Amino acid sequence: MKWNLIFGTLGLAAVGFLTGCETLPPDVERGPHGTIGYKVQIEATGPGARIEANGEYVGNTPVTIKIFGDRDGTFHDFGSPYYIIKALPLTTNQYPQTAMFGTGRFFGREDKIPERIFFNMTNPPPVYPPQVAAPPPAPYYYYYGPSVYIGGPPLFYGPRFNFWIGPRWHRRW
């Protein structure tokens, strides 16, 4: 009777010890899949630039957006390998700018959520060298013809037993 009481008490203590409590600060907003909300300020050299986050219009600069991320401050994987923020220009002599952040999908890179993003709309896009077409591959010449197997497969695949009667050159069954 005494052992049942001791084991029962130890079991309840283990369950109570292994059960953790989760506490968050009161000003943190909870999101889907156990994420929390982070506020990110987005600014550009020309105020009023159009901002898109993952292909959706979120506003004109300066704007503050809310990004739901993991508790360690990184982007959460909601099904896309990157979180993309684009700034589209207002006038001529400005260029579209893009910021790409890894979400850690398929063991890829996982970036921290920044507090502020600044786009310089006068930066031109990078210049890449021109693409040169590769020469076509040389044709394959058959010097001795294609390799062809003439003849059918053996009739029986399996163990083979030979019985020899008399001298080797005489008869085989």
Describe, in plain words, how this protein is organized in 3D.
The model has no long low-confidence stretch (mean pLDDT 81). It contains one helix and nine strands. The protein is mainly beta and 173 residues long. The protein has a domain at 26-119. The strands form three sheets. A four-stranded antiparallel beta sheet has the order 3-2-5-6, with no helix packed on it. A three-stranded mixed beta sheet has the order 4-1-7, with no helix packed on it. The protein has one helix at 2-18; strands spanning 36-44, 50-53, 56-60, 63-69, 82-88, 97-102, 116-119, 164-165, 171-172.
- Number of helices, counting only DSSP H or I runs of 4 residues or more: 1
As laid out across the biggest beta sheet, the strand order is 3-2-5-6
Structural class: mainly beta
Helix content: under 10%
Task: Count all strands and give the number.
Answer: 9
Q: Biggest sheet, open or closed, and with what strands and sense?
A: 4 strands, antiparallel
Order of helices and strands: HEEEEEEEEE
Shape: flat
How far do the termini sit from each other?
A: 82 Å
Uncertain segments: none
Mean pLDDT, as a whole number? Answer: 81
Strand content: 25-35%
Radius of gyration: 35 Å
